[in-house]
Amino acid sequence: MSRPYAPGQHRIPTDLLLKAYASGVFPMAENARDPEVFWVRPETRGILPLDGFHIPRSLAKTIRQAPFDIRVDHDFAAVIDACAEERPGRQSTWINEAIREAYLELNRIGHAHSVEAWVGEELVGGLYGVRLGSAFFGESMFSRATDASKVCLAFLVMRLRERGFLLLDTQFTTEHLKRFGAVDVPRARYETMLAQALEANARFNP
Predict the structure, then answer these.
(1) Residue 88 pLDDT more than 80?
(2) C-alpha angle 114-193-106 in degrees, rounded to nearest 5
(3) Can you give 31-49 as a three-state secondary structure string?
């Protein structure tokens, strides 16, 4: 279920965005050039249980080899821009300028974070999301090198576990995420889980 946000308006107020996440709603756009934003509240919600995260054997081997320098919030803007890039199999993106600017502001005030894979000074993969209470809402990920985004996801889960997070929201499930243990839950169950996660406060960064 979705509804448009103020047609023609090109800015998402930060307080409105955080309230939306707290009520189980998130924004999307039809494409990068569409100025409108739609608020989405799915009937079923994708989550990745932190105590049920599965690392495939091949990825575990890659993690042991440590081919990437993993950084947090080093270049948030570059991550969101990379997530919005057109690439084979996806010729459009739901990240428009209003969404980009809103998340940059969330990052500035400590409510959005990126996990990044670097080789030297080249950004080769990453993900970003929103932190609220002890919930982390994964937004998007990208990869320019084999396993780069997967290693970032594993790092994210490790950090969320260490810092006492209770919920990792993936919004939707994909076959890719299901390999790691992602599941769909009904809206009512999700909203109960969300309410519990919002009662506690976890810090993403020290």
Answers:
(1) no
(2) 30
(3) CCCCCCEEEECCCEEEECC
